[in-house]
Amino acid sequence: MDYLTSMKQYDVAIIGAGCSGLSLAYRLIGSPLKVCVLDNSKRDNRYRKTWSYWNTYEHPFQHLQANSNSSLVVKNSSQTILDCSNYNYSTIDSYDFDNFIFDELEKSKNIDVVFETNIEDIQLSDDGYSLIISDNETCKTGYVFDSRPSNSFSTMKQIFKGLFVEFHHPLKDFQAHLMDFSDKNQFHFFYSLPLGKGKYLFESTYYTSLEMDKESMASEVHDYIVEKYGEDYSVIREEYGEIPLTTNTKLNNNKSNYIKIGIPAGSTRASTGYTFLNIQKQADEYMKMLNGKSFIEHPKTFKNKILRKMDNLLLMIIKDHPTESKNILFEMFNRNQAQRVIRFLSDTPSLMDIILIIWNMPKLLFIKYAIRSFTTPKI
Ligand SMILES: Cc1cc2nc3c(=O)[nH]c(=O)nc-3n(C[C@H](O)[C@H](O)[C@H](O)COP(=O)(O)OP(=O)(O)OC[C@H]3O[C@@H](n4cnc5c(N)ncnc54)[C@H](O)[C@@H]3O)c2cc1C
What we know:
Strand content: 25-35%
Helix content: 25-40%
CATH topology of the largest domain: FAD/NAD(P)-binding domain
Bound molecules: flavin-adenine dinucleotide
Order of helices and strands: HEHEEEEEEHEEEEEEEEHEEHHHHHH
Largest sheet: 7 strands, mixed
Number of domains: 3
Shape: globular
Radius of gyration: 22 Å
Number of helices: 10
Number of strands: 17
CATH superfamily of the largest domain: FAD/NAD(P)-binding domain
Distance between the termini: 52 Å
């Protein structure tokens, strides 16, 4: 039998069963398209993450939200409260996300999920089909959505080490902190969230171009917890993450059947690291594309151009002036209406939000970096 006619054939192949791959696969359940999801990890040994975001965009996984906060503290030498009552700050555990979606995919008739298959090559051909070659099989597909991490280098990263802890007595004076800036000579802060039933997440976070030591970051978190809340806790699990912060992403070609998704497709908000909601927005746009409708993955509007420019300037300033940047960020929270800042951080500001936020930034420094950005490569 001819090798090519005997191989499995799909309309859509999704490479990577992570956040972006599964978000798209879930939306394709019950569609007339035959879909496969291919991942190199084991089903029962998945990398666990906790995704938080402000509820500024509706998506199909809202019922998985484990926790929601209506206010967050931002603290530098003084503190301010970010009122999130209009856009609750919510958290989804990727363990719940995976279990929910894998159960639904198992029941579906049009989607195959294959674990422990490492995609090694994708060959695009002129007949509109692509060959996906893994270490244990080859399949043919119409569309390829690829979420494998890209090898491109990014100077700035958000690096964080988190401890999930359980206190043996409830913390009466606990306040969730979005950013509790330390007095280090770096852009560094602690982050803390309640997760219900005496459980909390504490994180040490850096925006940096340097390598960081995980062990010393874990010690920082312990010291922080002990200083604020005492020693009466146990660690349930740990989390470590490095999110590339860059505005230098190569965008997809709208006419191609090979489409990058997730972080390699620029879903991370460059100046904040928030990614989850942008992945949901992108998945909705890809569905429009698969349904033959017009779609806009990265709207090239004036507003978006300004936002990307601001992200680049903020990253340049954080890189060169980490200590001053903490004051700039704090003042952004302090001087602007909470809803405005949340829309800005969530990539959904109005033009007026952007104008007022820029108005409240230190103008001379931004003008200096705006001029410099014409002669330096994007971060
Ligand atoms: C610890 C952590 C916490 C985070 N917290 C937040 C948060 O609070 N809020 C937020 O908005 N964002 C957060 N992010 C950022 C972002 O939301 C996540 O990283 C998100 O998982 C990115 O989705 P993705 O699909 O691009 O990548 P992933 O979820 O990493 O998926 C990629 C998939 O591709 C598979 N794969 C890789 N190579 C191959 C290959 N060769 N063949 C087959 N499969 C392959 C991997 O196994 C993986 O399953 C966090 C990131 C981390 C690391």
